[in-house]
Amino acid sequence: MCRLFFFCFLLFQYLRCLSQEQVESGAWRIGFSQEFQKFNQFSALRVQWNAKQHQFGFQLGMSAQKASQQLFAPCMSIDYAAPWKVKQCLLGPVLALSTDTYFFGTRFNYLHASIGYRFLTGNKWQFFQETSVGPSLESFTYFNQKNRQFTWNYHLKLGLQYALR
């Protein structure tokens, strides 16, 4: 619970630093995000490339929930968004593909594909919220038997990013 309050505190620091500068197309953005899924949550560092009205993002993170069990559980995701300007904000569809893994006696691998929307506000400092749903594939090997199962998963992502020139 303490992590959630600390993360929310960091997310809303951008309100104190709003800039009137316009960020040009072709800018790189770096930041961090907190992602909540059906079975897990991840803290990640994010890099995004803005090209006109297209955004390409890459995230690399770890699961704080799994790390509390003495495990390192990395996650990686790539996404594409095409937001439209709506007043002072950006809103539009997003496609994402992500993978995560953890080892708990047996290695569990997860592959997620999702579609949803992304809401962004701010110029130089930018807060974003993303919600998406899609199928997930869980796979693991136990006693030399390969197990796979498909399920639906949701993704709720909150983040803060800064525009580099």
Note down, in words, how this protein is organized.
The chain has 165 residues and is mainly beta. The chain has one domain (2-12, 28-164): Porin. It is 8% helix and 66% strand. It contains two helices and nine strands. An eight-stranded antiparallel barrel has the order 1-2-3-4-6-7-8-9. The protein is elongated. The model is unreliable at 14-23 (pLDDT under 50).
- How many distinct helices? 2
CATH architecture: Beta Barrel
The helix/strand series, from N terminus to C terminus, equals HEEEHEEEEEE
Low-confidence stretches: 14-23
Cα-atom radius of gyration: 17 Å
Largest sheet: 8 strands, antiparallel, barrel
CA distance, first residue to last residue: 36 Å
**On the 0-100 scale, what is the average pLDDT?**
82
Strand content: over 45%
Strands in their spatial order, largest beta sheet? 1-2-3-4-6-7-8-9
Pick out its properties.
elongated; single chain; 165 residues; mainly beta; 8% helix; Porin; 2 helices
Sequence-ordered SSE layout with sheet pairings:
Elements: H1 2-11, E1 28-37, E2 41-51, E3 54-62, H2 64-67, E4 74-81, E5 84-86, E6 89-103, E7 107-121, E8 125-142, E9 145-164
Antiparallel strand pairs: 1-2, 1-9, 2-3, 3-4, 4-6, 5-6, 6-7, 7-8, 8-9
Question: Brief description of this entry?
Answer:
The protein has helices spanning 2-11, 64-67; strands spanning 28-37, 41-51, 54-62, 74-81, 84-86, 89-103, 107-121, 125-142, 145-164. The protein has 165 residues and is mostly beta strands.
